[in-house]
Amino acid sequence: MRTALGDKTCTPCRGGVPPLKREEAEALRANAKDWELLDDAHRIERKFRFENFREALNFVEEVGELAEAEGHHPEVCFGWGHAKVSLQTKKIKGLQEYDFIMAVKIDRLFNRTRASVADRNR
Description:
41% helix; four-stranded antiparallel sheet; 3 helices
């Protein structure tokens, strides 16, 4: 039985492995549909929207905690009502399965954040 990406754990890349080919990256991106494949399939990125600065900040803090737990650290940029997260395995200057594992887990965080906000607004 295959394990879903979101149920896997990132393993730090030590280098020496080739980045995913575009076709492989596209296949894995099917698990993280809201992420864009950029830089000739060497990076994925997603933009997130929030109702205010506090929500964006809370989300970015959660992404940071996840990154520390997984040992896989994205580039994050945020401001009032928005955040942008970019993933790449820096040791190989490209993508590996771990980037998509993180993307799926970050999507889960965002979905929980949205559900929590919706509950508070009821």
